[in-house]
Amino acid sequence: MNKLLLLLLLFTSCACKKHEEALSNLPACLQNLVADKQQSAGLQTIRFQKIKGEKQYWLNTDARHLDGAEYIVNASCDTVCFICTECLPPECMKKYGAEEDWKIIWRK
Known about the structure:
Layout: H1 2-24, H2 28-35, E1 45-51, E2 54-60, E3 69-74, E4 79-84, E5 103-107
Antiparallel strand pairs: 1-2, 1-5, 2-3, 3-4
């Protein structure tokens, strides 16, 4: 029983450490967003791509699966594009690669 408890504590401490590291790699505005439980309630992942030297972050809420939009922001949290399923893709989406090209850098 003690070994199981020790393993559980070890796993929990590693998971927390990875979560903290992920947060420290985010721009300040995204750290604030994630820290605000009300604002980030629907947030599933934050994904990253570098486009022409600028860091871009996809705020993945899975809203696109429900005919909604998901936003792509820059390091200042200014919206630079959006993703939707039931709409014509905006022109700005042409500069991004496939979904697999986005690296998940934060997960709920």
